[in-house]
């Protein structure tokens, strides 16, 4: 499924960027060599980052 239609970023692209250390949507765009266009995807990216942090915190316990 696409997260960013403007840049053609799929969920797996965003997830890979987060796994590689992206902490902000800006980092995700940079990792994929693009930039925000309409920014409708930024909220979903933030949600994915937050979920990843929560999962990591639970795994660390």
Task: List the topology elements.
Elements: E1 2-4, E2 9-10, H1 11-19, H2 25-31, H3 42-60
Antiparallel strand pairs: 1-2
Helix pairs in contact: 1-3
How would you describe the overall organization of this protein?
InterPro entries: BFD-like_2Fe2S-bd_dom, BFD-like_2Fe2S-bd_dom_sf. This is Ferredoxin. Residues 2-51 form the BFD-like [2Fe-2S]-binding domain. The protein is mostly helical and 61 residues long. It has one domain (1-57): Arc Repressor Mutant, subunit A (Orthogonal Bundle). 57% of the residues lie in helices and 8% in strands. The protein has three helices and two strands. It has helices spanning 11-19, 25-31, 42-60, and strands at 2-4, 9-10. Strands 1-2 form a two-stranded antiparallel sheet. The longest helix is centred in the last third of the chain and has 19 residues, at 42-60. It is elongated, with a radius of gyration of 11 Å. 21% of the residues are buried. The mean pLDDT is 95.
């Amino acid at each position: 499924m696409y997260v960013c239609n403007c840049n053609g970023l799929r969920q797996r692209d965003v997830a890979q960027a987060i796994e590689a250390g992206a902490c902000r949507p800006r980092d995700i765009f940079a990792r994929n060599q693009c930039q925000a266009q309409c920014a409708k995807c930024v909220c979903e990216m933030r949600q994915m980052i937050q979920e990843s942090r929560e999962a990591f915190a639970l795994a660390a316990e």
